[in-house]
TrEMBL record:
One GO molecular-function entry: ligase activity, forming carbon-sulfur bonds
CDD domains found in the cross-reference section: ttLC_FACS_AlkK_like (cd12119)
Lineage: superkingdom: Bacteria
Name of protein: Long-chain fatty acid--CoA ligase
Organism field: Streptomyces carminius
SUPFAM superfamilies associated with the record: Acetyl-CoA synthetase-like
Domain AMP-dependent synthetase/ligase: 35-399
Length: 550
């Protein structure tokens, strides 16, 4: 028997219409450096979004399903593109501006982007690639920048404001099938070619509702959120879409992502929430210690993208009264997978074990753990396995390219359709995930697993340690053993490897203690700011690290 309910498609245009009318007074403030910030209401954004859609369709001939790329920072214009492109039935493709040139060229070609919206400040990055971006017919330059670098380039060049000027401020958004493509994002691809994840209107809609739930970010129009996480990194964790559902004001940092301007904009614009990867918060802590600022407006921050060291969470809470909420997700999961609010009724020290975990699964993310022998592991908080997930905002395949079938690599998708995350961890009976490693980073020592993440978290709790990355290196006797690479805090003075090892001794089993140690100036990072252990392993293999053996 069918229900008697209306079958209304869950589309991005519905989020847009709601946000720009019911929450028309909410604002996007974009930081501009020294000058006065740029301020726009959601109502104004709505009119400009319509103008952009007209410009793309009538001015540039962009049609349904055509891919339109953005190479942009977090700013109001990027939000306009976020809504206009999917709402008109085309596909938004956010480009990660930190990827190597070769990968960007490959990705644009694979997605067959017809147009690119680019921030003027990023023209020096785009211009040298243009001769190789064969599918791109139009470049739209947003904001000030030296456009002379585009002289003589093949694609037609347009200026964003000029393209919008005089266009109608309303658009008859088409009624789309909720399962059609709204946006796409390529994974950072540490091995092989990057993989394209294509989000549907439905997945964006449902994911945004989850972001707004109290058990996730739980924001309202009384909040201002500062998404430091880039809009090219999994839709800024869903914040722009979620904001238009509930009227959350947005403070956009544009290209000012260094600790000093971040501290300055927090003090001046008083956001109540922020979201970023741990390295950003490490930097902010160091900045605040040196140049104190008033960050008392911040109620809570969402940290994810890589494991958040518990010491970082504690410092923010104890020193600044900011509640850090840990979350886990990936490009393939839109990204929301788990969020670390403790169970109701627990507070203080009782809540910490839950808060430092990666968090709890929401109703729409089903999870299972697959052990080394392929069998499903129990949720007992002890048995480790590879995490597999499924749900309405979890990828079921990768984009195969225009006209090609979607790709389902065996190592990423199980035969029964679950996403293999490549993350290894445990789950408690009440659904809290603790990641112990990436499947490829786990250290296999004498038939047992050592968690590199656990060692790193403990090391980063040492007062002299700024950052620590632990990688597996070959060992004749044990197969693999941990190598601890440590970045010392400036002015920390001398600290011996013995002291660091002793610091770990009462925190992990004896056989897990690293015997190989080295101090490095900085941990190499991937394009989205995560520890790049591949580089460390390669440096070790090449004999480039000065390793001490205890
Ligand atoms: P990406 O698709 O680039 O966002 O990378 C996703 C991966 O980042 C996940 O599969 C995890 O390995 C890692 N990751 C994300 N959030 C966390 C977290 N809170 N703790 C540990 N690892 C994380």
């Amino acid at each position: 028997m069918l229900s008697t309910m209306q079958d209304v498609p869950l589309t991005v245009s519905r989020i847009l219409r709601h946000g720009t009318t019911v929450h028309g007074r909410s604002r996007i403030t974009t930081w501009t450096g020294n000058a006065e910030p740029q301020r726009r209401t959601f109502a104004e954004i709505g009119e400009r979004t319509a103008q952009l859609a007209h410009a793309l369709r009538d001015g540039l001939g962009i049609a349904r399903d055509d891919r339109v790329a953005t190479l942009m920072w977090n700013n109001a214009e990027h939000v306009e593109a976020y809504f206009a492109i999917p709402a008109m039935g085309s596909v938004l493709h956010t480009l990660n501006l930190r990827l190597p040139a070769e990968q960007l060229v490959w990705i644009v070609g694979h997605a067959a982007d017809r147009a690119i919206l680019v921030d003027g400040s990023l023209l020096p990055l785009l211009a040298p690639l243009l001769p190789r971006l064969d599918t791109v017919e139009h470049v739209v330059v947003v904001g000030p920048g030296d456009t002379s670098v585009l002289d003589g380039c093949r694609p037609a060049v347009h200026e964003y404001e000029a393209l919008l000027a005089g266009r109608p401020t309303a658009y008859d958004w088409p009624e789309l099938d909720e399962r059609t493509a709204a946006a796409m994002c390529y994974t950072s691809g540490t091995t092989g070619d990057p993989k394209g994840v294509v989000y549907s209107h439905r997945s964006v809609y449902l994911h945004s509702m989850q972001v707004n739930m109290g058990e996730c970010m739980g924001l309202t129009d009384a909040d201002t959120s500062l998404p430091v996480v880039p809009m090219f990194h999994v839709n800024a964790w869903g914040l722009p879409h979620a904001a238009f559902m509930t009227g959350v004001n947005l403070l956009m940092p544009d290209r000012f992502l260094q600790p000093a301007p971040l501290a300055e904009m927090i003090e001046a614009e008083r956001p109540t929430h922020s979201a970023a990867v741990p390295t950003i918060w490490q930097g902010l802590l160091a900045e605040l210690a040196e140049r104190p600022r008033d960050i008392s407006s911040l109620r809570h921050v969402t940290i994810g993208g890589s494991a958040c060291p518990p010491s970082l969470m504690r410092t923010f809470e104890e020193r600044y009264g900011v509640r850090v909420v840990h979350a886990w997700g990936m490009t393939e999961t839109s990204p929301l997978g788990t969020v670390g609010h403790p169970p109701g009724g627990l507070s203080g020290e009782d809540a910490w074990p839950y808060r430092v975990s990666q968090g709890r699964f929401p109703a729409s993310v089903e999870a299972r753990l697959i052990g080394p022998d392929g069998s499903e592991m129990p949720w007992d908080g002890k048995s480790a396995g590879e995490l597999e997930v499924r749900g309405p905002w979890i990828a079921g395949a990768y984009y195969g390219g225009a006209g090609a079938e979607p790709i389902r690599p065996e190592d990423r998708f199980s035969p029964d359709g679950w996403l293999r995350t490549g993350d290894v961890g445990t789950v408690t009976p009440d659904g809290y995930l603790t990641l112990t490693d990436r499947a490829k980073d786990v250290i296999k020592s004498g038939g047992e697993w050592i968690s590199s993440v656990e060692l790193e978290n403990h090391l980063m709790g040492h007062p002299a340690v700024a950052e620590a990355a632990v990688v597996a290196v070959p060992d004749e006797k044990w197969g693999e053993r941990p190598l601890a690479t440590v970045v010392l805090k400036e002015g920390a003075g001398k600290v011996s490897y013995e002291e660091l090892r002793d610091f770990l001794a009462d925190k992990v089993a004896r056989w897990q203690l690293p015997e190989r140690w080295t101090v490095i100036p900085a941990v190499p990072k991937t394009s989205v700011g995560k520890f790049d252990k591949k580089v460390l392993r390669a440096r070790y293999a090449e004999g480039e690290l000065d390793v001490t053996r205890l």
